Hints:
Layout: H1 2-39, E1 53-62, E2 66-76, E3 81-92, E4 113-122, E5 124-127, E6 130-142, E7 148-149, E8 155-171, E9 177-196, E10 203-223, E11 228-243, H2 245-248, E12 262-275
Antiparallel strand pairs: 1-2, 1-12, 2-3, 3-4, 4-6, 5-6, 6-8, 7-8, 8-9, 9-10, 10-11, 11-12
Amino acid sequence: MKKVFIAIGSLIACNGYADQNYIDYQPQKNQSESQTEAEYSGIVGTGVKSNTVSAAGGAVEFSPSGANFYGFFTQTLANGIYYEGRLYTRNNYDAQNPLFPSVPASNENNPWGYGAVVKLGYDFQPNQTIDIIPYLRLNAYNNMSTVYEDTNGDYIHSTSFAIIPGVKLAYKITPQFNPYVDLSAGWQHVNLSGEFPQADSPYAATGTVSQTVMTYEIGFSSKLSTNLALIPYMQYITTTNNPDSTAAAPYSQNGFNISSLTGTQQVFGLKLSAGW
């Protein structure tokens, strides 16, 4: 009987030691997780020092000429390196083409666009409330610039490639509200191809447009929970066109009638991001 009591006592002591280790370990783990959740702003690209922050989600953007939809995955590594990948699709709105004023909008059949974006940067965190993220953005798009197509066989299709450096400045005000500003400017090359069997003088043509694109974006992160953030934003985009002779030529001279004037547009977007 004495041996039985000694064995039971030893078992209780061992269990007590194991439970105490578990109790001691859990607060440390939860404290680290809580710190990461508290410090992460929800803004894509921002991180937490000495921790890797991952995020994924989707967004919709509305502009006068179309609506973009994209999904993304991003990581800000513990060493500050930031990368992001996006896959786009675009609904090109129906719009009357001046080349064919007699063609009703109901006859238009503009194709959807698609594309991919890669961003690579670094998250500087001079203090706990500010993130400064310089980055380089590479775009590859199909039918996300000048686009037209109708049921009569007339069409304009486009492919575009861009190299755009930028910088994002994010400010952590509260755990739930964090504004940011994103400035970028770079070069974009657009290839145009088209056929116009319904023109007064039917023709096919190809042309190119070199563009300087500047984008000013402002937005904020509103955290719905510790892991989920809703990010409304607005972009003001300025585009300077430099078309070649074919792209600049009017329709009557078998061109695309692309203006060399600077154009502007506003884009309104809404992003949903889940971080971990």
